[in-house]
Write a structure and sequence with these properties.
- There is one protein chain.
- The chain has helices spanning 3-41, 90-96, 100-111, 115-143, 146-161, 163-172, 181-208.
- The protein is an all-alpha fold and 214 residues long.
- Helix 3 packs antiparallel against helix 4 and helix 4 packs parallel to helix 7.
């Protein structure tokens, strides 16, 4: 083999080796760049912060009930206002204003410490008015003229005959759901007897100008 041939072979081998080295270097560099690019392209996972604690909503205070439904004795309050006389002269009504039965009734209701005490005060006054009716009626029959006596007898007879019905009507007129029903009924019955006593007292006052109790 001549010198020129050997030289060509050597140059060809050198070129091949250089080509192989360049190919290996390119592959190595390409893999490195690819890995780097991938690393740069893929963002690091974001850390989601833990949710902040939420305060429980504050409850609004329950409003206190309006109004006062209890009395000094722990029961629903009961007030008493007795009707003024509608019969008789002005002098009679003025004389009747401070009668002892009403005065005692007002004192008993004022000092009553319970519903039972109030009912007792009403019943006591009712008994007093019943006695007053009997007493005044007897005096009218004794001192009145014939016409007056006859009229009063008829009125009293009618009142006695209607008494049971009138008392039942009073009881039926008050609702069973009324917390003060017992007091209301007892007082209404007392006023019923008081009204009849007033009518009779007015007649007797016209006869002799007297207003006696007891």
């Amino acid at each position: 083999m001549n010198m020129n041939m050997k030289t060509c072979i050597r140059l060809l081998c050198a070129v091949c080796c250089a080509a192989i080295l360049l190919t290996m270097t390119a592959c190595s560099g390409g893999n490195k760049n690819t890995s780097s690019a991938t690393a740069e392209a893929t963002p690091a996972p974001e850390i989601t912060p833990a949710p902040e604690a939420t305060a429980a909503p504050e409850e609004e205070p329950t409003p206190a009930p309006e109004g006062n439904t209890s009395s000094e004795t722990g029961e629903n309050r009961h007030t008493s206002t007795l009707p003024v006389p509608e019969t008789g002269s002005e002098e009679f009504r003025a004389a009747f204003e401070n009668n002892p039965i009403d005065t005692q009734y007002a004192d008993d209701m004022e000092t009553a410490g319970s519903v039972a005490g109030m009912i007792t005060a009403c019943n006591t006054a009712s008994d007093s008015w019943k006695e007053q009716i009997d007493s005044v009626y007897t005096q009218i029959l004794e001192y009145g003229d014939d016409k007056t006596v006859e009229t009063v007898k008829e009125e009293q007879s009618h009142w006695v005959n209607e008494q049971s019905t009138a008392l039942q009507d009073i009881r039926d007129s008050v609702s069973e759901d009324d917390p003060l029903r017992a007091i209301t009924v007892a007082e209404s019955i007392m006023v019923y007897y008081r009204t009849r006593a007033i009518d009779l007292c007015a007649v007797l006052y016209d006869i002799n100008g007297t207003l006696a109790f007891g």
